[in-house]
Amino acid sequence: MLRCNVKFIFEGEEEIGSPSLEAFCQENKELLKADIILVSDTSMVSKEVPSLTTGLRGLAYWQVEVTGPDHDLHSGHFGGAVANPVNVLCKLMADITGPDGKITIPGFYDDVQELSAAEKEMIAQIPFNEEAYKKNIGVKEVAGEAGYSTLERNSTRPAFDICGIWGGYTGEGSKTVLPSQAFAKVSCRLVPNQDHTKISDLFVKYLSEVAPDTVTVKVTPSHGGQGYVCPIDIPAYKAAEKAVEKAFGKNLWLYAAEEVSLLFLLLNRCWVSRPY
What we know:
With 276 residues, the chain is α+β, with helices and mostly antiparallel strands. It is built from nine helices and nine strands. It has helices spanning 21-27, 29-32, 75-78, 85-94, 117-124, 130-137, 150-153, 196-210, 235-248, and strands spanning 51-56, 58-67, 73-74, 159-167, 177-178, 181-190, 216-225, 228-229, 253-257. The longest helix has 15 residues, at 196-210. The two termini are 30 Å apart.
């Protein structure tokens, strides 16, 4: 028999930004009141290495729309004289990440909390096989921000990604079109102290300033979420640690996940990664 009350929330809107969850939580604070929140949508280092996820990165998401001429043109008549929105969009998106893997948006790193030497050392102790990692996802080499390991990049550092990009003619065969518009869906994973609303505003401002006069750029912010960190010195965490160690019969490693759970939006916390 459990010695405490347990409340369950089953939420199925995560992949579309959980539009209903925050309002539900705000309106039902007494109903949802609890000493501890446990999220089950997390991961372990491996089947052989038991882990507790103590941190979740935040998120900011946008749609970018680039418009050139007011209708599609023939590239034979206009190519080289009129800006191609697809070309411009690709250049704008490519320039957001510099040669060193850093995001070039001014002010983007202002609030990023750097890992301490001790934290970097603890992350380095996590049993991680980079060759197996690459083989498992079918890539020849990893990439990312210079000066950081793969585990640091995918858990404790910000990231910019183009989630989808389209425009022009994409059907069968060939069509020499200079498209009127091009579109992209893009996101940033955010880390300690970064506020998703601030980052969203910085992104919109940046594109408005660097966009050439040959096109019109429209940026529409979508959903976002704050990061979260769980203290590892509280009784609830210590109890979870003992339970995992007992279940697996071995010591526990902490592992910081790469995905945000919008269940933590109201907590407005950020995180760092610490292996145990």
